[in-house]
Amino acid sequence: MASLLLAGCTPTGIAIGAGARVATAAAEERGLRGSAEDTWVTTEINRRWFEFDHRLPLQATVTVRDGVALLTGVVDTADLRLAAVRLAWSEEAIHRVINELRVAGQDSRTQGDTADAGRDLWIAKTLEARLLFDGEILSINYAVDVADRVVYLMGTAQSAAERDRVIAHARDIAHVRRVVSYVGIKGAPGD
Questions:
Q1: What is the pTM of this model?
Q2: Nearest to 63 by CA among 85, 88, 42
């Protein structure tokens, strides 16, 4: 097992991994250039968050697709929430910020402990696997984020039926409280 993990650290392993990421990005609706720009913007927002307060990237997640930033997670204070939004807007490529950040203690369901984080990760990975193995869904076009058992979806569906199928998969996972969809439909106005 260790040799398999170390193989990924070789020049050949790194090249194969990079090639796979490029091929994956090129296959997405947003294309290689859009994927690369979104990755860069995400990195810049996370950098700004870290420079402002090192806790912020640990408590909040930013998902960027086509210039739209989705902010999720549970932060310690209202000031931290406000700063996260302000810093996301400060990135020039961002034309819309969706603020789904919550402040710990302001919602009785917002706990933010290790068990909750583990459950959120399990929900996200379960949904990603379901999308990947569903032959009627082009899973590469979706981003999944889970915060406090709320599933957030971003991306571009090939049809309304595909979008509805993705949402149904998310709702069918144990422990999911709610599903919030920011999924557009290919060719629809505004997408």
A1: 0.76
A2: 42
CA gap 49, 107 in Å, rounded: 23
Per-residue pLDDT reduced to its tens digit, 47-82? 999 999 999 999 999 999 989 999 999 999 999 999
For residue 62 the two structure tokens come to: 């930013």
Q: Which two tokens stand for residue 100?
A: 């789904």
145 φ, ψ to 5°? -135, 145
Tokens for 69? 């930033």
Task: Please give the Cα distance from 63 to 180 (Å, whole number).
Answer: 14
**Which residue type, as a one-letter code, is found at position 178?**
R
pLDDT digits (tens, 9 = 90+) for 137-163: 999 999 999 999 999 999 999 999 999
Instruction: Report the length, in residues, of the chain.
Output: 191
What DSSP character marks residue 110? -
Name 178's bridge partners.
150
90 burial level (CB within 10 Å; 0-12, 13-18, 19+): exposed
